[in-house]
Specification:
This protein has helices at 15-27, 37-57, 71-82, 96-107, 125-131, 154-163, 248-284, 313-322, 335-341, 359-374; strands at 2-3, 65-68, 87-91, 112-115, 136-142, 167-171, 190-194, 206-210, 289-292, 303-308, 325-326, 328-330, 348-352. It contains ten helices and 13 strands. The structure holds pyridoxal-5'-phosphate (PLP).
């Protein structure tokens, strides 16, 4: 198998991730739910994972990070927990996990504005500035497009939002673990991220960071293992957002994924940049292939979308799958982004590289694609 669907979820994971998941599953124990050895280990694994994530994103206090089951859950916690009738601004490159809760909020009678993006998937900063009104409370920006890999200048976007008095939120689903994020320098008030993509953890993991001082409500309530005498959710983070039994098995794996990124992140980025360059070069010379978005390696990551003059993207993805090549075709849950990129009708076939892919694999995929397109 050649796996080129790392934007959906990364595969394979580092060996240490598989080992940690198995060990945690065999060991047992629920974090914050007992004084016996196994429960204490589960709590300390969660704490260590928070610390490592804080180190990676320069988050001043690990306690401000809560674990979630994916990015979508984190996004919903932020949007629904913070907005109480005030204005929301999102960008034209958002995933449905931002777009759909935003549109629900809009349908409920609230103000939601969408800042434009250009045909390469980059945010229009003038449009962003114009969209932020005195009524805007929250500005949510996609860091890296899951359709065309464009990297948005989130520091510039967050500075604009702060200047206009709004809270900033960054969807780092495609950037966490792939490119550097510094919540202080980038002026990010809320960061939502998956554990299962660039951080190389298992599916079922993700998280949210909320800066100290930002007020938010809960969207789910339940047991936290703390303040059990109270009828209400604790005010203290992370307990305030971590309801019910936590995914300690997944988080044990995520801890190893984050450690791997802390140790090898730069090397992996360099490798993925090389693979992306090769992929773009190969694709650009195959007849009837149209590269979507930025055709160069500048300001982009290894998420590369194409469509074809004469063949349907799903048909080609299926033919590649028959050859053992894993890609994804369609709208990638990002209708807004396709509108901006002009690919709403065709959809795209998406290749997304990972740390274990090789140049030989990229050549093999390109060659097989060419064969399918001429058959
Ligand atoms: C840009 C973006 N945001 C949000 C999500 C949702 O992530 P998750 O599947 O972890 O909920 C994705 C998933 O691919 C994404 O690419």
């Amino acid at each position: 198998m050649i796996y080129l669907d790392n934007a959906a979820t990364s595969h394979p994971k580092p060996k240490s991730v598989y080992k940690a998941v198995c060990e945690a599953l065999y060991r047992g124990g629920s974090a914050g739910r007992g004084g016996y050895k196994e429960a204490i280990i589960a709590s300390s694994v969660m704490y260590e994972c928070r610390e490592k994530i804080a180190q990676l994103f320069n988050i001043p206090s690990p306690d401000r990070i809560a674990f979630t089951k994916n990015t979508t859950e984190a996004i919903n916690m932020a949007l629904k927990g913070i907005l109480k009738g005030e204005g929301l601004v999102i960008s034209h490159m958002e995933h449905n996990s931002v777009y759909r809760p935003s549109m629900k909020y809009y349908r409920e009678g609230n103000e939601v504005l969408i800042a434009n993006a250009d045909k390469f998937g980059y945010l229009d900063f003038e449009s962003l500035e114009e969209s932020i009104l005195s009524t805007t409370k929250l500005v949510c920006i996609n860091h890296v497009s899951n359709v065309c890999g464009s990297v948005n200048d989130i520091r510039r976007a967050c500075k604009i939002a702060h200047k206009k008095g709004a809270i900033t939120m960054v969807d780092a689903a495609q950037s966490a673990g792939i490119i550097p994020i510094d919540v202080i320098k980038d002026e990010i008030d809320i960061l939502v991220f998956p554990g299962h993509k660039g951080l190389l953890g298992p599916v079922g993991t993700g998280g949210i960071y909320i800066k100290e001082g930002i007020e938010f409500d809960t969207i789910m309530e339940g047991g936290t293992g703390s303040e059990s005498e109270s009828a209400y959710m604790p005010e203290l983070m992370p307990d305030r957002l971590e309801y019910g039994t936590q995914n300690v098995v997944g988080i044990a794996g995520l801890l190893e994924g984050v450690k791997y990124i802390l140790e090898n992140g730069e090397k992996i980025s360099g490798h993925e940049r090389e693979l992306t360059k090769k992929l773009l070069e190969n694709l650009s010379v195959i007849p009837n292939v149209h590269i979507v978005g930025n055709p160069s390696t500048e300001n982009r990551v290894g998420v590369v979308s194409v469509y074809f003059s004469h063949k349907d993207v799903v048909e080609v993805a299926n033919a590649l799958a028959d050859e053992g090549i894993c890609t994804r075709a369609g709208l990638h849950c990002a209708v807004l982004a396709h509108e901006a990129l002009g690919t709403l009708k065709s959809g795209t076939l998406r290749f997304s590289v990972g740390f274990s892919n090789t140049k030989e694999e990229i050549d093999e995929v390109s060659w097989k694609l060419q064969k399918i397109l001429t058959s």
